[in-house]
Amino acid sequence: MRPIHWIIVLIVVLVLFGAQKLPDLARSIGKSAKILKEEMNDLSQDSSSTSEQTSTSEPENTDSSK
């Protein structure tokens, strides 16, 4: 996006939400982004620990032909 597009978006946000509500809106968006980031990290850690458990626990070789 060009800089003029960002300026237009900021003006529209300012008109829609008003200057007094912008700090609260920005704070809320920041908190939501932080929560989303933490959850994504938790999910990636859970999936990596699950894959480690499945790769380290190999099935025993049971030969029933003996």
UniProtKB/TrEMBL annotation:
GO terms for biological process: protein transport by the Tat complex. The keyword Transport applies. It comes from the Bacteria. InterPro entries: TatA/B/E, TatA/E. One of its GO terms (molecular function) is protein transmembrane transporter activity. This is Sec-independent protein translocase protein TatA. The keyword Cytoplasm does not apply. It comes from Schaalia odontolytica. Belongs to the TatA/E family.
